[in-house]
Amino acid sequence: MDTIAGFFSFITTPVSWVIVQFHKLYGAIFGPDTGWAWGLSIVSLVILIRICLIPLFVKQIKATRAMQTLQPEMKKIQERYKSDKQRQSEEMMKLYKESGTNPLSSCLPILAQSPFFFALYHVLNSIASNDTIGVINNRLLESAQKAHIFGAPLAAKFTDSSSKVEALGSSLTDVRIVTALMIVLMSLSQFYTQRQLMTKNVDTTVKTPFMQQQKMLMYVFPIMFAVFGINFPVGVLVYWLTTNVWTMGQQMYVIRQNPTPGSKAQAAFLERLHKHVTTAQKARNRREVNVIKAIVAKGRDRNEYERKFINGLHKAGLAAQADGSVVVSDAATTATLTEDGTPSGGGTPKRQQPKRQSKAKRHSGPTAATAKTDAESGAKPSLTKSEDGSATKDADKSGEPKDAAAKDAANKGKSGASGGQQPGQGTRSKAKSGQRKGQQRPKHPSKK
User: Fold this and answer.
1) Integer Cα distance of 368 and 384 in angstroms
2) Residue 336 has pLDDT above 50, yes or no
3) Does residue 294 share a domain with residue 146?
4) What is the mean pLDDT of residues 52-58?
5) Residues 196, 78 share a domain
6) 255 CB contacts (<8 Å, ≥6 apart)?
7) Do the Cβ atoms of 326 and 281 come closer than 8 Å?
8) Residue 279 half-sphere exposure toward CB, CA atoms < 13 A
9) Are 242 and 290 part of one and the same domain?
10) Residue 412 lies in a domain
11) Which residues form the Membrane insertase YidC/Oxa/ALB C-terminal domain (predicted)?
């Protein structure tokens, strides 16, 4: 660890200067030699560094989500060129270039934070060794050695000997209890952050190797912190515990306000957004407008939760527009019906299915219905006067006779006309149709 920290010695002077400036501020409140003054100086250093790394953190989120989106395509390339590693690497780089994704972007916050971490380790190790470093002179060195955090010196380690700990003005039991407690809290905070990322902020509709990697890191990182934490000074443990708590809070904010599409966090976020929009009948701020605009722009590519959100707006009588605004939908309003069943709002009436007739009504045919209608209406056949002055009944438009005798004569004429057929043709056709031989009774006009 000392060798690695030596590579970052160039940054020890800025780091020590920042710590000293914060120490002046807190020393005026809690006293210059107290653990609170030096401990809060380290915490303030962490907060300052993490604020400066927020742009990199945003870039990390975008890169991580882009990598999740590319995982299916990457898997196809690996299967297609599994025997040609060089072609596989070329296709991967081509895919990254086309999508504008850099796999190293997801590691930027950790890589950018590493120099400060090792520089702080180098500063605290120098304090434990009674060596001046950076802007920390002999007076500040003595003040830092006197500083204790819950009874443990700032520069003490879990693996230090009892003689070294006694030289710093503490006992080995106090040092090990404090360092063990900090290591446990540091590992638990790291585990909770990774678990929160895996269970709430991962697209559950796509099963990719990225999810397996994240699941593995969820268990590997806490173990790594527990193993390496026993070699960290108390001041470094304060630094790392603070940065883990910051990461956990930052991750909770991102999961709540900007969740991954298709994740459980997005489902909860869209439920809250739907409640707010339906209550206010509009998007309340620019962030909600941008979210709705992005969902509308996806069209058919929306996931399950986004489709549910759009359908929920329609059911509430609202419609999401392409610009992200929400308006009252005219199509969602139901038209009221008048007494005769027509829509009063000018909408088109629903098509009604005809009622199914019973078997008796179908066998009775239209004659019974017509007779019933005539009986109810009481209409009588009209008489027209012909040229010779005699009254005759009106024939209907089709020219068919109305009385039964005329219809019988017509039937006989038809049967006589069929006598010109070839012998056996009519009998054979009737036999095929299942009718009796010989003269048939004339059918009722309604059954022709």
Assistant:
1) 27
2) no
3) no
4) 83
5) yes
6) 196, 197, 200, 201, 265
7) yes
8) 7
9) no
10) no
11) 38-255
**225 alpha carbon, distance to own chain's centre:** 33
What number of other Cβ atoms are within 10 A of residue 167's Cβ?
Answer: 15
Angstrom distance (rounded) from CA 128 to CA 156: 7
Range of the domain at 153: 2-257
Q: What's the whole-number mean pLDDT along residues 169-186?
A: 90
Q: Between the CA atoms of 388, 389, 391 and 394, what dihedral angle is there, to the nearest 10 degrees? A: 60
What are the pLDDT digits (tens) for 64-84? 777 767 777 777 887 888 888
Could you tell me if residue 244 is inside a domain?
A: yes
| Cα–Cα distance measured from residue 340 to residue 350, given in angstroms and rounded to the nearest whole number | 13
Cα separation, 263 vs 118, whole angstroms: 36
- pLDDT tens digits along 263-278: 888 889 999 999 999 9
Closest CA to 276 of 331, 322, 318, 334: 318
Tokens linked to 383: 């008489």
152 and 38 part of one domain? yes
Predicted model pTM: 0.64
Q: What is the pLDDT of residue 20?
A: 92
Helix (H/G/I), strand (E/B), else coil: 301: helix
277/245 same-domain check = no
* Rounded Cα–Cα distance for residues 204 and 200 (Å): 9
Place of tokens 């962490």: 46
pLDDT value, residue 366: 55
- Strand ranges, E, within 100-215: 148-149, 152-153
- What is the average pLDDT value for the chain, to the nearest integer? 74
Domain boundary among 310, 328, 346: 328
